[in-house]
Amino acid sequence: MSQMTPPDAIKEDSMEKQKQMISANFHELAQAPQQGRKVVSTFVPGNINELLMCFDMARNLPEINALQNGMRKKTGRMIMEAERSGHSEDVCTYVKADLGMMAQGNIGPTGETLPKPDLLLLSYTGCFTFMKWFELVREQYDCETSMLHIPYQGDGTINENMRDYVVKQLREEVIPTLERVSGVKFDIDRLREYMRESAKSEEDLVWVLQTAKNRPSPIDAYFGGVYYIGPIFTAFRGTEDASEYYRTLRSEIAERLEKGEGPITPDGEMKDEKYRLVVEGPPNWTSFREFWKMFYEEGAVVVASTYTKVGGVYDFGFRHDPDHPLESMADYCLGCYTNLNLPSRAEMLSNYVEDYQADGLLINSIKSCNSFSAGQLLLLREVEKRTGKPGAFIETDLVDPRYFSGANVKNRLESYFQMINQKRGGGFSEGVAA
Amino acid sequence: MNNFQNGGSAAIVDRCRRLFDDLEFSEVREWKAAEKGRKVIGYMPVYVPREIIHAAGMLPVGILGGGDQLEVIQGDAYYQSYICRIPRSTIELGLTGRLDVLDGMLFPSICDVIRNLSGMWQLMFEDKYVRYFDVPQNYARDIGGSYYVNELKQLLSDLEKLSGKQISPDDLWKSIEVYNENRRAIQDLYHYRAKRPWKTPSPDVYLVIRAGMVLPVEEHTQLIRDYISAVEKEEQVMRDNCRVVVSGVFCEQPPLNLIRSIEMAGCYIVDDDFMLVTRWLLEDVPTSGDPLENLADGFLNHSNETSAKYVPVTSDKGQYLVEAVRKNQAEGVIFAAPSFCDPALLDRPMLQNCLAEENIPYTAFKYAENSGQMQPIREQAGTFADSIKLWSA
Predict the structure, then answer these.
(1) Is the ipTM here above 0.90?
(2) Which of A88, A179, B83, B364 has a Cα at 20 to 30 A from A369?
(3) Nearest Cβ partner of A87 from B132, B337, B349?
(4) Residue of chain A with shortest Cα separation from B132
(5) Contact criterion met (CB < 8 Å) for A135 and B317
């Protein structure tokens, strides 16, 4: 089937639905100025989409622009443009892709011009670079900036002081700023309604991600997972569209599960599940398909990943709570994956390896992202120590094609699969290069 | 305690140099051993309220990496090539037992690398007190201020448990006063250097300030005062150097040779952002009222600007650097940033834009704490100095 069917023919309904949603959002953004809609730019982790929708604002997410441009192979030139104008080769390539895109006319991934934001909502969650990113961007836009600072879970817990701090910022600074910029009065019941909708999507997403505990896994929780998190991590959480998307996705996965099918890949269903991995770190976007292929060609499926928790950790029970809207919004922000300390991350990864019956942990270490990357080599040791399962480490980047070396990554993966085989005591598997 | 008057500034600088070179923290060990029950708390850049540590009867010790004399073997195994040097050398110090003298470590909010190092420390040194010291990026008194006061209370309570000593408001007042005095002394030294940089070579000033990372604060204040008195009595030849501000050196420290090279290349450093913890608060903290509220107020309203802090008003961004140039009559800025330092390198283009608008010349390079080759730095700084001398009106 996979040989006969071109990749776009095997897209499921949920994929088509998501594609339409993303295109529609880029179009909405492009049209916003003509339609008199205000535009807010904000980041994925700790995004407060439900609140922003209360003010009828169009939502622009710079990381999504960068990754979409990366998948379309446009970011190399953008990054070089930013470096030519004085930005260091050492810093985050999402930032440079964004600045390069602006320098080249701010044409978005779908070819439409992205509007000038009316507000930069700096949700400083789990990543120091976000703060500098919007300081850099606001120099060019000269628009209002509102800061939502999310304290870090340094001791692995959320305490009252942290929650109160976030709620106060929301109540006393962010909401009044949104009211002023948008001209729309805040309606908490509207917020509750969106949050109720969010919780539905969250429930379905968790169900989908946890189907990977089955053998074979009906999903790939990393390469497929990045599609599954798309709506809920971005401009759609809290919308009926998102709820519908997750309902559809859930029924598709339920069907695959019932039939005992493996995950859908760009080349069709992955039939023979040989390796089950937990993956830590974001994917590479510029060679996303090539990267994914290195896994499914070897029969490797990712059963759990941390990147799919970067815009919200839902699998331990958190749901947006319409009865305590601001407090639960604070907890959401505080609980995003990169806001967790290293011991919490080590525990989460070890539990994933155990709970999802994985063969081991693979870390894709991203040059651009110190928030993820600093400390990952220790995480690898910790998880190996706690689970007794072998780990492996590869290095790529988010959207800088110069830092994706396909041959090196493939070599390392092949060695890793050999290692897993040896660990199982089964020798070398067929088709794995020696 | 020590009398350096007879040996002049050279004797003081020699002592500071010995402290700087001593990666075993011998004097800290001696301080700790001198009295039973003494405790030592390490802290990393960029700022912690040392007053609270002092009030608990503990010695705050600045941990600024391993410099260029430490061979990093184990530390490198914990980091990818694209991460700066300071965490790896700090881990090396920890794993080789050099930091055993510390009873705890504070990791301030400066960047994701130091933030994550706090968690690594929790995993690697389980018997030690470890705290990620978060600070507000919201500066409203009732919002960020209230959050920060509670963070200070938590730190205070932790240190009380660790030391077994209740910290009274009176203890805090006394500690605030000794740190006010220390900041005044450092400010005097900086003012003195800005006026007579030929009498206060920057490598010497650096060592004198750096001594404050390991000495008890009272001793350090006296040492600075002694140094100023000593240099006042000494004659030095004034060279035809240009005057520069050095920016970006607030975390991983450059080798001493780099500071020397800048000066040898024809640049007097008249201001810098080395060891900002010593100059973070720009005014005396009042010694009446609620001490923690006052420390918080100092942080929110009277603290230094650096890349680790959010600047709410766009037009304020970088103005501190322009002001530093004006106030110290500098002729240019040298941006020296550690390789892979997110705060310094992300900030740099914005700061450069501010300088360009004011027609202030600048140059920029990167370093690592273990950089060995100074010739390129000397050439770049020398060319910069020449261009200022030749072309500035």
Answers:
(1) yes
(2) B364
(3) B349
(4) A154
(5) yes
Structural domains for chain A: 7-186 (3.40.50.11890), 191-424 (3.40.50.11900)
| Number of structural domains found in chain B | 1
B33 in contact with chain A, both atoms CB, cutoff 8 A: no
Task: Classify B271 as helix, strand or coil.
Answer: strand
Helix (H, G, I), strand (E, B) or coil at A147: strand
**Helix residue ranges per DSSP H, A260-363:** 288-296, 325-334, 342-355
Contacts of A347 by beta carbon, 8 Å cutoff, 6+ apart: none
- Which residue numbers in chain A have pLDDT < 70? 1-11, 426-434
pLDDT of residue A431: 39
A371–B314 C-beta distance less than 8 A:
no
Q: Within a domain: residue B41?
A: yes
Q: State phi, psi for B198 to the nearest 5 degrees.
A: -70, -20
How many Å apart are CA B102 and CA A429, to the nearest integer?
A: 50
B246 lies in a domain?
no
Are the C-beta atoms of A121 and A148 separated by less than 8 Å? yes
Give the pLDDT of residue A13: 83
Contact by Cβ (8 Å): B64, B250: no
| The pLDDT value given to residue B4 | 54
Full residue range of the structural domain in which residue B9 is found:
5-170
In this complex, is the C-beta atom of B384 within 8 Å of any C-beta atom belonging to chain A? no
Q: pLDDT digits over B232-276, tens only?
A: 999 999 999 999 999 999 999 999 999 999 999 999 999 999 999
